[in-house]
Fold this sequence. Notes:
Rossmann fold; 3 strands; three-stranded parallel β-sheet; mainly alpha; 11% strand
Amino acid sequence: MFRSACLLVLPYRDATQSALVAAAYTFGLPVIVTDTGALAEYVVEGETGWIVPPGDARALASALRAALADPGRLSAMGLAGAHGSRTAAARRRQGFGRCTAIC
């Protein structure tokens, strides 16, 4: 399913997180997510996707129009998401980003 898509849209009204954002990036897809839970933390607005307010149909429609109007931009954003996903995975393997508690 991901291979035939050009974009992933997650119009959740309520969520904490979704593994689908990482899956989209793995397949080189940009995303449109709602600003709920931690979803927006995985998106660089305008670079790897769009963030819209939950329940705002006009904002969602606007983001969809922008996304579908420029296939070249969609492709570039998907590549940015894929690159960021690989970079984050490499950093985790190297031990970067680990948290140490100081008591």
